Amino acid sequence: MHIVVKKLQLTDAEKALFEEPQFIHKKSLKIKKEDGSTIELPAFRVQFNNARGPFKGGIRFHPLADEDEVKALAALMAIKTAVVNIPFGGGKGGVQCNPKELTKAEVQKVARAYIRAFQDHIGPDIDCPAPDVNTTPAIMAWMRDEYEKQTKSYSPAVITGKPLAFGGSLGRDTATARGGFFILQEMMDREALDPEELTVAIQGFGNAGAHMAHYLHNAGYTVVAVSDSQGGVYSPEGIDPVRIQKYKGKTGSVAGEYCEGSVCDIGRMKMDNVQHITNEEILELPCDILIPAALDNVITADNAKNIKAKYILELANGPTTPEADAIFETMNVRVIPDVLANAGGVTVSYFEWTQGRSGEQWTKEQVDSELKRVILEGYKAVRREARREKVSYRHAAFSVGIKRMLEAMKVRGWL
Ligand code: NAD
Question: For residue 353, is it within any domain?
């Protein structure tokens, strides 16, 4: 963001609005555990900018969630909502805790305590949270319920990512992958590339990565490799994501059909022409499209030069370091940045918010066609900016987002 702010030659007053969030709220959540002990958890809600609409962004439960991380993520959300031009600003929340060390009842206590701590700062027209790392639809349901209890209101639009039975939207679970898929299809179409001749490697086989693997496989792309936290599988002839999903369900890992931990059935792998690969190796495989869909900072100055893909679609948040980005510019690798590539999730959250406010229930087809329209408009705005200014897609996306935010801030008289 700082590089783009510099290049856009903003005034000092304009720059200041991108340097610090509007509000940083901090609280300590006191939770009584089932063993009778009490823990205190640092909790944050950072509201970066609401010039374009209510603050919007997930809440993560993670041991490393701290003020700096939540601040950086809140700024990215403001850019993301502006890139796809939905009427939201950007925010983010976090609770510093390890949910794996808490019982289900204790996690519910954390969720409800978070809402009580920040209830004056959130609301359907103020700030609408959503799920993020380690927070689930069930947690969103407890949060909505607590908000409605505390405010004695009916407020389904206060939070998104809720279960379908409690005000969620159809298509929210697949939205991130679906949005990325629409962008990729549009790019390949424009470049007259045939999916049947394109190979793809996907790091991460969770919500974003697994759905993406299915969409690509069904559209005729050859998915040559997938991985999860325990490593991955590679076959130059392609793998079937349905089969991988089935075995992951049974064994807990994408390599589960062939390997138990690090012990693999070599004979069976030879027969299927499959190799076991590490999460470092998957990034450097020969393929046309690389999709990081797991962790941040996995593509760095150390491995960027070895990456063979010509297209990188960032479904994960922040998978590429700025140094790697600079290397890709010299290698003519096209990176579709996270603030555009994974914006399908927040776009369908916007549809959920709209449904919550109006009482309507959209069909799956409605969600799908609106998502396609919104995300492709965002993509086209970024592509135009990249061409006009002769900059990377990441630079162009930030530039589009910042300009849209500035426009709203001027109308509001903040500048
Ligand atoms: P998830 O928890 O469903 O899946 C994460 C996947 O990454 C799992 O398959 C896990 O095994 C794998 N993984 C974990 N550690 C790994 C490692 N060291 N190496 C390789 N793989 C590893 O998460 P998700 O919702 O799919 O999110 C993935 C990424 O996409 C994150 O960066 C997230 O911020 C981003 N994202 C997700 C959404 C969404 O709606 N789900 C929206 C925007 C961005």
Answer: no
